[in-house]
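Structure tokens please, single chain.
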Amino acid sequence: QVQLVESGGGSVQPGGSLRLSCATSGIIFNGSNQGWYRQAPGKTRELVARISPGGRIVYNDAVKGRFTISRDNAKSILYLQMNSLKPEDTAVYYCNADNGRSNYWGQGTQVTVSS
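Here you go.
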């Protein structure tokens, strides 16, 4: 059974940092496209960053230069390091894995950036 579990969300001030983690099980970790998405109130879910089995990384322009996606293949964990956080980064962040035929999602972790 495929399972994705996000953690690391919380409330921070503008300019602060957070590191999100996505623990995965039941998938071939290095054989899947993996990514982070986010959804703010009243908005649709949008791509934040994704990484392919070959290591190709794509970032949303809104986070490029501030966020970094990475993975630990030995532990099957996907990370999102978020620096210089802005209020507009406030959203629920979701982990995703894509085998090419199926998409899997975690339950999400809340990130709130405010003074």
